[in-house]
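Supplementary Methods. Inverse-folding protocol.

Structures were first reduced to a discrete structure-token string of length 359. This string, shown here, constituted the complete conditioning input.
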């Protein structure tokens, strides 16, 4: 805030406070009126109580409430409040005495019995203090609630950004062995001038375009995900040749059905990376079916006796679990089964629900 803005804000606060105390003076004038007294006399008498009322109010509003009551220092607040009441009550008594002496004179007992009216004055002054203090508490509570809401929104926004960054990181977890092996295969084919070389380069280019660029989208067509799985399988067929037996079946997929990108392809990549058969052949079965917009995906790969088994499920599957938890928290079911001969992954996904945390 610049200097002129600060002065403008200060001027507005001063004006509002002045109007408030003018209303308080009129309030005192109305309630402190007594017999045979004209308006000027009553206003003069009421004005004697403004300084102590203003002082007591500001002590509570700007000192006791924010420093002791709001931080829940109740004992200290109570002690200071009692002290403030005792001091202010003394000043109110003195103000009442001098106010009556000046406005009414020594015959005040006939028109203004001090013992009876002093309690009335104390109640009136402390009523103003109580109203102002209550308003201050409401204002502080509103400000605190607004700040908490803003802080909550900032925390949620930060968490969302972290999740988005995590999703980007998880989507880019592509095993370099696939690219390395495929390029080696292409190199070998090129040395023999094999006619499949250009087609394999084009397939690899399409797959890398999908992995590197299309996955930046929050959602892609399920049909595109399946087509790139087929593309991936074709590349692996050229690499494994007769050492691969693969069966891939997919139901017809409506164009409108969408999925978060790179959810299924890592499962396929994982089966090629870790699968192996006792006869030296890798056997993989992939099935994808749709029941309305409930997708059922199942992939089974063979395991040989010499296949290395880790205690966990591997980084790839753990990444997919994390992505599914972020995107489809309550709309998916993932099962992993590992027996002597086969490794099986089953995923049920509700594609009718929009993934959470996706922009």
């Amino acid at each position: 805030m610049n200097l002129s803005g600060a002065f403008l804000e200060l001027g507005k606060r001063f004006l509002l406070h002045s109007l408030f105390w003018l209303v308080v003076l009129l309030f005192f004038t109305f309630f402190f009126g007594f017999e045979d007294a004209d308006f000027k006399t009553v206003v003069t008498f009421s004005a004697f109580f403004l300084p102590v009322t203003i002082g007591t109010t500001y002590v509570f509003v700007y000192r006791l409430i924010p420093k002791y009551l709001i931080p829940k220092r109740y004992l200290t607040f109570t002690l200071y409040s009692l002290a403030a009441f005792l001091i202010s009550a003394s000043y109110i008594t003195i103000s009442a005495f001098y106010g009556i002496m000046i406005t009414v004179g020594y015959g005040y007992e006939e028109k203004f019995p001090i013992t009876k009216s002093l309690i009335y004055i104390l109640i009136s002054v402390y009523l103003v203090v109580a109203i102002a203090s209550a308003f201050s508490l409401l204002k502080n509570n509103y400000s605190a609630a607004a700040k908490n809401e803003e802080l909550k929104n900032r925390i949620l926004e930060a968490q969302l950004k972290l999740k988005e960054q995590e999703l980007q990181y998880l989507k880019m977890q592509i095993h370099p062995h696939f690219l390395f092996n495929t390029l080696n295969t292409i190199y070998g084919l090129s040395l023999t001038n094999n006619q499949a070389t250009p087609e394999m380069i084009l397939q690899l280019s399409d797959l890398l375009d999908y992995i590197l660029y299309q996955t930046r989208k929050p959602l892609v067509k399920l049909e595109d995900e399946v087509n790139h799985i087929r593309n991936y399988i074709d590349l692996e067929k050229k690499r494994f040749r007769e050492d691969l037996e693969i069966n891939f079946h997919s139901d017809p997929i409506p164009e409108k059905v969408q999925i978060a990108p790179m959810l299924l392809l890592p499962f396929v990549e994982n089966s090629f990376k870790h699968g192996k058969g006792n006869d030296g052949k890798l056997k993989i079965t992939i099935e994808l079916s749709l029941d309305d917009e409930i997708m059922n995906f199942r992939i089974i790969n063979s395991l040989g006796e010499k296949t290395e088994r880790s205690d966990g499920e591997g980084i790839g599957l753990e990444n997919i679990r994390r992505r599914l938890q972020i995107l489809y928290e309550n709309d998916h079911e993932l099962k992993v089964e590992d027996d002597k001969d086969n490794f099986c992954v089953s995923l049920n996904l509700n594609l009718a629900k929009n993934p959470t945390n996706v922009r």
